[in-house]
Amino acid sequence: MLDSVKISRRQSEIRQELAALVGKDSPTDDETRSMETLDSEYRTNETRYRAALVSEDEERQEATDDLETRSDREWSDMVDQFELRQVALALDEGRQLDGQTAEIVQEMRSQGGYRGIPVPLMALERRAGETVAAGTPDPITTRPIIERLFPSSVASAMGGQMINIGVGETEWPVTTSAVTAGWAATETGAVAGPAEYTTLDRPLAPDHNLGIQMKITRKTMKQSGAALEQAVRRDMNGAIQQELDRAIFLGSGATGEPTGLFTGAAGFGITETPIDAAPTWAVFRSAVTRFITGNAANGPGSVRLLLRPEVWDTMDGAIWDAGSGITEWDRLAKAMGSVTLTNNALAAPAGGPPVTTNAMLTTTAGGVAPYFVGIWGGVDMVRDPYSDAASGGLRLTALMTMDLTISRAVQTEILTGLE
């Protein structure tokens, strides 16, 4: 039992005894001394009670912090045991899920509606130490599957924050008012008048569904065995990552796609600065300067830059100092906090002559990411039992729902016309 509870009960007993003694018109000497003793004990217990509450509050806080982190660790440990092979067999043969896989599926079903079998996004991550069992030795040994190549993810490299949403919509209020300080002109004069505090909502809504279809033949199921799980997981992860990166930056906003940062720059209020010149360090330095004057960055080290590989090719071939061999790229890479090259999240150079492309700069200000990517729940794995029934194949459709929004428009800038 907690000390504070014990003390509280003793205080209640003392109050009852005192109430009985105080009610007497002419208490005896022993009763008077008893009242003094009880009163002294009551005051002492009050001090002890406060000290016990302080001590126990610290213990409760430590226990609460441990419970909060423990739940995340336990879920992560459970997802590590998730077997995608069980999902494939359940959809193909109707086999019952068991172990940690069944627990995770049951938990996800209780929090959101899924037509098929829900799969947590973390289960698609490439796991450290994965091994592939040796192939069937007779008559042919099947070696590990050689997978497709996917571009590296740039959504997180550019400072975007991934938000996992259970149900409903999420929005961020962004302050848009310009409250200014003012001095009183005279001794009795008034300071600056009241300014309206206004905000702009940046909502995330479950309006965009991304689907991936995979066709697995009966031979593959029989031949690859457990290795198939690892290959399917990595292939789905790569396909989702590639399309999400493209949509986050280049999404058209039509035919079900979200509106990407480049496409929706005007609607988001993102500044677009035409360069119409060759890319040099001076061009990007001016953009960083605009970030600093807008209170969005403290210096070039806190700014992230997204470029096409062709821009790197041009800048690395442009010698700034012939004597030292320093190129424009050397100056840029030395000063900037992060430079990411991509051929997936930026449109290919076009036009011309000269051929031009775009670039993007982002920064994290006040701990707030430049943009948010909302993902609802996990991956919904659905089987098509009809299309490949004649051949005994398995056709899987992985569905996920996402949306994109920005935080403060001043944390992002687009440069156009880089030649």
Q: What would you report as the Rg, rounded to the nearest angstrom?
A: 32 Å
Overall geometric form: flat
User: What is the domain tally?
Assistant: 2
Task: Count all strands and give the number.
Answer: 14
Helix content: 25-40%
Order of helices and strands: HHHHEEEEEHHHEHEHEEHEEEEE
> Roughly what is the average pLDDT, rounded to an integer?
80
- Per CATH, the architecture of the largest domain is Alpha-Beta Complex
Low-pLDDT sequence parts: 129-142
- Beta content comes to 15-25%
Structural class: alpha+beta
Helix count from the secondary structure assignment? 10
What is the CATH first-level class name of the largest domain?
Alpha Beta
Would you give the CATH topology of the largest domain? phage-related protein like fold
The largest sheet, given as strand count, sense and whether it forms a barrel, is: 5 strands, mixed
* C-alpha termini separation: 75 Å
Defining traits:
419 residues; alpha+beta; phage-related protein like fold; five-stranded mixed β-sheet; 10 helices; flat
Word description of this protein:
With about 425 residues, the chain is α+β, with helices and mostly antiparallel strands. The chain folds into 2 domains: about 5-70; about 120-180 and about 195-419, phage-related protein like fold (Alpha-Beta Complex). It is built from 10 helices and 14 strands. Strands 1, 2, 5, 12 and 13 form a 5-stranded mixed sheet that branches. It has a 5-stranded mixed sheet with strand order 6-14-11-7-10. A two-stranded antiparallel ribbon has the order 3-4. A hairpin with a 4-residue loop joins strand 8 (about 320) and strand 9 (about 325). Helix 1 (about 5-20) runs antiparallel to helix 2. The protein is flat, with a radius of gyration of 32 Å. The chain starts with a helix and ends with a strand.
